[in-house]
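Known limitations

Structure tokens in this collection are predictions and should be treated as such. Users comparing against experimental data should check residue numbering before alignment. To illustrate the layout, the record for Dihydrolipoyl dehydrogenase is reproduced below. The input appears on top and the generated tokens appear beneath it.
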Amino acid sequence: MQEFDLLVVGGGPGGYVAAIRAAQRGLSVGLVEKEKAGGVCLNWGCIPTKAMLRSAEVYETVLHSADFGVRAENVALDFGAVTRRKDGVVKNLTDGVAGLLKANGVTVIDGHARFTGPNTVDVHPNGESPLGEGGPRYAAEPAGGQPVERVTGRDVIIAAGSVPARLPIPGADLPGVITSDGAFGLQEVPKRIAVIGGSAVGAEWASMFATFGSEVTVVEMASSLVPIEDAEVGKALGRSMSKSGVRVLTDSTVSAIEQAEGALRVHVDGSKAQQLDVDVVLMGVGRKPNTASLGLDATGVATDERGFVRVDEKLRTNVDHVYAIGDVTGKALLAHVASHQGVVAVETITGHEAHIDYGVVPAATFTHPEIASVGLTEAAAKEHGHDVVTSRFPFAALGRSKTTGDEEGFMKIVAGSKHGEILGVHVIGPSASDLITEGTLAISLEATLDELADTIHAHPTLGEIGMESAMSALGLPLHTAPPRRR
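Generated tokens:
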């Protein structure tokens, strides 16, 4: 039996960061992982999808290269090459994480973890998970009949992550009905695809396949896409997707899926009932905690009604010396949140001060155009009792956007009307995921519109949109007509 100061169960962005920080703090660390280090983010989520979305971006750019005075003939998509490049990117990064763990002295234990007590885990070897859905990654029980290794930790961090959820509708288990994980197993671009769910995951896959040439329909039960975002952003994405040929059905739900005439027939209920005949149905309807096979009952750790582990502000569970971080906590299912939680948990264990502010967490959706946000939406700010002023500054008014030819979208700032404190920043447009950092820092430092407007920004850059948006919110725009304050 191996014994450690800290035992981390799960090697995703939360688990491996926690393990590295703990080793830096002088602890002996064991990390149990049943796949390659990096978790969902590196193996099944953030990284592989962004690699493929980059291929889509390049493909679209080349198709329109004549707009920039560059002639390209016989442009074609090689989907096999797209997936091979994606695999190469994933391998490079997962190998890098493995190298970091080794360099920091973390002991990595390959296998499927199952708790036998609060501080004790049996590790069942089960080999690598096959590409696509099924196999050890989704097994309700670890593979049997193989040697089991028992490991313990004085302190334990549960970082088991999450898996895609499926809607409990008739036909959800038919061949051709997949989740985001299953999409990586596709050998060719589907001719027709229905995406159930218009949040970040569904919207990204819809954007990608539309660019690759699929006939795409998105079914979203809310009144706009990416419903957690500011309403203006969601509506703008819907207009953009519709313009690019995606059929967007909002205020709609799927009641059933059935096989019919060589296709999957999707029954959609909305303003009117309709049927869609497609080749693939992709469910992008959220995620659930990956705890089914962990044996959490043996720990006494409390979970909520959805199965997420309950934690306090320091990531402590109700059981002494047992912590939980990342998606399994249900706080904010984002890789960067998991990483920060991992740091906070370890610093708490080792007697150092650290905290996390869930009110200042940036989020990004890598559709085309990109979306990013931080802080309160306009509606949420008003619900919290704020008297607000807002502004929308278009990318089309930036010189840099004109030169790149990427002019779609805007930045929206939500601020307090009395003091100008920045409450929320919302971007849809080029490099939104990079631009949101300024908004995150502004809210973290309690900056005001005046301070953002008075900060000199380099020209010509996309980053100028922060300064310009602040000026617009103050009613003093230099490069657009005076906005209507509200």
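For this record: Residues 127-136 have pLDDT under 50 and may be disordered. The first strand starts at residue 2 and ends at 9. Please report discrepancies through the issue tracker.
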